[in-house]
Amino acid sequence: MAMTELSTPKTTSPFLHSSSRLSLSSKLHLSNQFRHLLLPPLHTTSNSKISCSVSQNNQAPVAVQDNGSVKTKKECYGVFCLTYDLKAEEETKSWKKMINIAVSGAAGMISNHLLFKLASGSVFGPDQPIALKLLGSERSIQALEGVAMELEDSLFPLLREVDIGTDPYEVFQDVEWALLIGAKPRGPGMERAALLDINGQIFAEQGKALNAVASPNVKVLVVGNPCNTNALICLKNAPNIPAKNFHALTRLDENRAKCQLALKAGVFYDKVSNMTIWGNHSTTQRGGLLIQKWGRSSAASTAVSIVDAIKSLVTPTPEGDWFSTGVYTNGNPYGIAEDLVFSMPCRSTGDGDYELVKDVEFDDYLRNRISKSEAELLAEKKCVAHLTGDGIAFCDLGPVDTMLPGEV
Amino acid sequence: MAMTELSTPKTTSPFLHSSSRLSLSSKLHLSNQFRHLLLPPLHTTSNSKISCSVSQNNQAPVAVQDNGSVKTKKECYGVFCLTYDLKAEEETKSWKKMINIAVSGAAGMISNHLLFKLASGSVFGPDQPIALKLLGSERSIQALEGVAMELEDSLFPLLREVDIGTDPYEVFQDVEWALLIGAKPRGPGMERAALLDINGQIFAEQGKALNAVASPNVKVLVVGNPCNTNALICLKNAPNIPAKNFHALTRLDENRAKCQLALKAGVFYDKVSNMTIWGNHSTTQRGGLLIQKWGRSSAASTAVSIVDAIKSLVTPTPEGDWFSTGVYTNGNPYGIAEDLVFSMPCRSTGDGDYELVKDVEFDDYLRNRISKSEAELLAEKKCVAHLTGDGIAFCDLGPVDTMLPGEV
C-alpha cells in the first residue's frame, strides 16, 4: 500500500510560529493574514508536546493511484483536496469504507443544516467516513464555496471529501445516496402547472444523471416540492436504478403530526408511535404558519426530518413501530393506484432497503382521505406525462392548492 | 412519587383515526387542519400494534409539585408545557438530572444551528435531558415561537422544556449554562466606540441578571462581539459568580487556524493539535471572506465552534493537547495584564472547569503579537469603564479596526 508523505505528518522542522509565514497553498483560499493567529513557538517543554509542524520538503498534494487509475479530483475543495491514505485510516480506526453522498440545492438553507449533520457523523454513525458532493446552480457557486469553507472550518474528522459542482453528471459520480433538495420555489402568480413543469425538468435531468453515473444501488430521497411527483419523474428517468430506491420525504409531516398528536393527547411526543402519512407531502398547514412566524421556511426541522428518514433506512425499525416514506407503488396491498410515489407505512432491517407494512386496515373515512390524495397525485402525474415517458401532458389540477409560495 | 396520568399514555380508547378530530389544545398552536395527516385506524392486527391513543378523560396539563412549591411555567412553549414525571424517566433511562441552558440571540442564525445541536444530545451526551431557555428581543418574539415550533417538530427525546422570553431576569432563572450570542451588529458608519457601548450595556444587564437568578456556578460563554470585552463587562456585573466561569469564544479562530495550518502542511486537519489563539477573537480575515462568498456570516461553523468550546469543558482534554478560550486573567503565568478576558491555552478534566496550560514559552515574535492584542483589549476596557465599575470611560481605540460590519 502506498503511503504518501502526507500520512506521516509528525515531521520535525521548522515549526510554524509566525502568522506571516502562513501563505496558503490552496488556490481557493485567499486569506493570508492572521493577525490574531499566533501559533505555538519552537520550544517544547516536558509537559506540552507541540505538534504543529510543517515539513521542509512539503509537496503539493498528488493524485493517489487507485485500482490502477489515477484519481483526479477536479472539483474538490480546499483541505479536502489533500491526498492521504484513507484506507490505512479505515483499517487503523476500524472505519467503514467511505460513502459518497450527493446533495442538491446545497447552497440553500435546508442543506446548510443538513450538510453539517451528515459531516458530523450523527446520521451514518461515528465509524462512517463521508464524501459530500454538493450540487448547486451557476448562480450559487460562490455560496457553495462558502459552505465548503465552513465545512472545512468545522474540522469534522469523518468528512474526507467535499466536491462542489453544477453538473449532475459530474457531481453524482458513484454516489450511494442522493438527497435532492434543490427545487425552484413557486414565485408570485406562478401557476402550479408551470411549477410542476419547471421542477419536473430538473428532476428528469437529475434522474438521467443518476442513471448514468451513480452507484447502481443508489438511494434517492427527493425533498424538493412537489416531492412525490418529482420523485416519480426522477425514477422514470433512471430505469437502471431500482424504482424501490426512490423516496419522497414525508417524514416532516410525520414528525409534525406526532408532535400535534402528543399535544392533543397530553403526552410527551416520544410516546407517539406508528404514525402513518398516507399519500403526498403537504406544504401547507403548519409550514405556512411557520413561514408567517419565522419569516422563512422551516429549514432546521426539515433537515432533522431528512436525517430521520435516512436513519430509518440504515437502522432497524424498532419492534412494533413503522415509519412513513413516499415510495413507488408497485404491488401495494392497499389498492392504491400503481405507478405513483405514495407515502405508506414501512419498516427496515437497517440495510438501506424497506418493506411495506401490509396489514393496516382502513375505515371509510381513511379510505376516502387516501383516495383524495391519490387523485391529486394522479392529476399531477398527467401534468408531467411528457417528463415520464407517458405521452402528452394534460394538466387539470383542480381548485385545491396544496402548495404555498415560499415553501421549499 | 406522584405519577401523573400523563406518564401512563398507553390508554385504550378511542383511537384517534380521523384528522378532523384533531383540534389542538395548546393556545399557541393554531393549525387544526390536517388534510394529509391520516392516522392509523382503530383496528390492530397481530403484527402491528397501533399505539396512537388518547384517553377519554384526558386532562389539561397541570403543575407538578416540586420540592413543595408549585412550579409554574409561564413562558413554556407548546408540547414542552406538558407536565410529566421527568424524575421517573431519569431513573428508568439512567438519565442525568436535567440541565437548564440559556441562549441569547435565540432567533438569530447562529442559534438556529446551535439549538438543534444542543437539543439532539450531541453536545452534552445521550443521557442528558435538556431545558432550553431562549432569550430574544421584543422584535424577535414571533421568530422565537417559530424556533420553538421547529424544535417541537424535531421530536428530540432529550429536549424536555423550551421557554421563550425577553427578560433576562426570567429567562436566566436557574440556568447552568448561558450562551450569550445576541449582540447588535455594527451598522454602516457606526463607530467602534458606539458599538462597544451599545453591546456593553446589553452584557452589563445580562451579567446583573445572571448574578441575580442563575445557578451560582453557571458557566457563561460570550459569543456576541466584541466578545472578550463583552465577557469582561458581563463578569464585572456578576460579582457572585466566579470570574473563572466566564468565557469569550475564540474557538472559531482556533478551528479556522487548524484548518489553514493543515492546508499549509499538506495534512488532514485532524493531525493539527496544540493550537493556541492568544488574546482576542478576530472578526476579520476568513470571516470577511466568508461573508463575501456566502452573503451572510458563518453561522453554521460558528455554532460548531460553540459546541466544540462547550465539549472542551465537559469532556477531558486529550493527553498532551489543549484548547483555546478567552478567560479572565487572574494570576496568569505569561505576564499578560490582569483583569482582562484573554484567550489562552487551557485544559479541562471534563467537570466544566479548566486550568491554564502554564509552560508554553514565547519567542520575541509571539511576545510582540500578544502585546498588540493585549493593548487592543486594554483600550477597549477603557472605553467601557462606565460599565465595569472602573470609573469614567475614555475611548481611544486607535486606527486598527478589527470589526467588520455584518459579522456577528
TrEMBL record, chains A, B:
CDD domains in the record: MDH_chloroplast-like
GO function term, MF aspect, one: malate dehydrogenase activity
Residue ranges annotated for the Lactate/malate dehydrogenase C-terminal domain, each copy included: 285-386
Pfam families assigned to the protein according to its UniProt record, in alphabetical order: Ldh_1_C, Ldh_1_N
Residues annotated as domain Lactate/malate dehydrogenase N-terminal: 100-247
Highest taxon of the lineage: Eukaryota
InterPro entries, A to Z: Lactate/malate_DH_C, Lactate/malate_DH_N, Lactate_DH/Glyco_Ohase_4_C, Malate_DH_AS, Malate_DH_type2, NAD(P)-bd_dom_sf
Keyword Oxidoreductase: yes
Keywords linked to the UniProt accession: Oxidoreductase
Any one biological process term the GO annotation gives: malate metabolic process
SUPFAM superfamilies associated with the record: LDH C-terminal domain-like (SSF56327), NAD(P)-binding Rossmann-fold domains (SSF51735)
Family annotation (NCBIfam families): PRK05442.1
Family: Belongs to the LDH/MDH superfamily. MDH type 2 family.
Protein name per Swiss-Prot or TrEMBL: Malate dehydrogenase [NADP], chloroplastic
Native source organism of the sequence: Brassica carinata (Ethiopian mustard)
